Amino acid sequence: MAEAMHIGIDARLVYYTQAGIGEYTLRLTQTLAAMYGDDRFTLLQDRRDERALVSAPNVQLARTRVPSHHRVEQLLLPWVADHLHVDVFHSPDFIPPLRARVPSVITIHDLAFLIYPHFVTKEGARYYGQIDRAVRRADQIIAVSESTRRDLIHMLGAPEEKITVIHEAADPQFQPEDRAAALRHVKMQFNLPDDFILFVSTIEPRKNVGGLLRAYRRLRDDYKLKPALALVGAQGWLSDDVYKLVDTLNLKSACFFLGRVSNRDLFHLYNAARCLVHPAFYEGFGLTPLEAMACGAPVIVSNVSSLPEVVGDAALLVDPQHDEEITVALWRVLTDEALQKSLRAKGLLRAAQFSWRRAAEQTMAVYRKAARCQT
Question: How many domains is the chain partitioned into structurally?
Answer without folding.
Answer: 2
